[in-house]
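User: Could you go from structure to sequence for me? I need the amino acid at each position, not a summary. C-alpha cells:
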C-alpha cells in the first residue's frame, strides 16, 4: 500500500490499529475461520454534495464494498446498513452514523462478524478530555457537520458508542478511508506503515487495557 501511495504521489501513511496485539505477517480475512454467527456491516459514503470540499467517489466506494461483501463473503442485504448522501439511502448525518454504530454493536453477539467502512472527510480537533498524547482528537465529518450544534464526530464518541459496546467474541474490521483516520477508533495497538517501524504492533502508552479486554476483537 505504501508503494502504491508513493507511486501516485500521495503523502498519507497507512496505519493498522487493533484491540489485540496482532502478528502483522499473518493472513487476514474479514471472516475468521471459527466464524459461526451472523455477518453485519455499516457502510458509509459521503460526497458532501453541493458543499465546499465536495468529493467524487465516496458513495461508489461504499456501494462497491457492499457488492464485494455480498458476492465474496456472503453478507445479506438485511444485515447491511448503507448510509449515503444520495437522497435515496439513509442520510449520513451525525445522529444517523452514531445510531448505526450503536445498533450494530447492540445486535452483534459472540461468533458474529462486523465490517465497518467509512469513506469521506476526516479531521482533528483539540483534545478537551486529556486522553490524547498528541493533544488532538481524530474526527469523522458527517454530512450535516456545518449545521448549528452538530459538528464533527469525535473518536471519543465512536469509542463509547461502538468500541466499548461490542461483546466478547465479536470479530470486527473497520476501514476508515479518510484523513487523520489512523487512530480514530482509539484502539490500544498500532502499526504505522511508513517503512520505519520494525517488528509487530506497538502498544499505545497509557492506554487503559481493562476496557477493551472484555469486548470483541476490532481491527481498523
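Assistant: Here is the amino acid at each position, in order:
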Amino acid at each position: 500500500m505504501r508503494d502504491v501511495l508513493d507511486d501516485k504521489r500521495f503523502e498519507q501513511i497507512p496505519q493498522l490499529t487493533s484491540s489485540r496485539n496482532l502478528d502483522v505477517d499473518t493472513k487476514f480475512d474479514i471472516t475468521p475461520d471459527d466464524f459461526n454467527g451472523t455477518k453485519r456491516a455499516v457502510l458509509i459514503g459521503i460526497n458532501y454534495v453541493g458543499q465546499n470540499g465536495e468529493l467524487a467517489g465516496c458513495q461508489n466506494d461504499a456501494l462497491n464494498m457492499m457488492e464485494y461483501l455480498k458476492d465474496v463473503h456472503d453478507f445479506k442485504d438485511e444485515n447491511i446498513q448503507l448510509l449515503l448522501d444520495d437522497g435515496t439511502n439513509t442520510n449520513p448525518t451525525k445522529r444517523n452514523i452514531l445510531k448505526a454504530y450503536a445498533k450494530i454493536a447492540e445486535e452483534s453477539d459472540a461468533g458474529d462478524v462486523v465490517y465497518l467502512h467509512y469513506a469521506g472527510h476526516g479531521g482533528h480537533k483539540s483534545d478537551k478530555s486529556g486522553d490524547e498524547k498528541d493533544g488532538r482528537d481524530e474526527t469523522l465529518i458527517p454530512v450535516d457537520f456545518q449545521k448549528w450544534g452538530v459538528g464533527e464526530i469525535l473518536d471519543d464518541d465512536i469509542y463509547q458508542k461502538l468500541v466499548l459496546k461490542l461483546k466478547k467474541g465479536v470479530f470486527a474490521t473497520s476501514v476508515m478511508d479518510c484523513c487523520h483516520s489512523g487512530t480514530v477508533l482509539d484502539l490500544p495497538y498500532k502499526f504505522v506503515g511508513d517503512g520505519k517501524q520494525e517488528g509487530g504492533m506497538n502498544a499505545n502508552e497509557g492506554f487503559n487495557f481493562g476496557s477493551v479486554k472484555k469486548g470483541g476483537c476490532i481491527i481498523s
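One structural detail worth keeping in mind: The CA atoms of residues 3 and 131 lie 33 Å apart.
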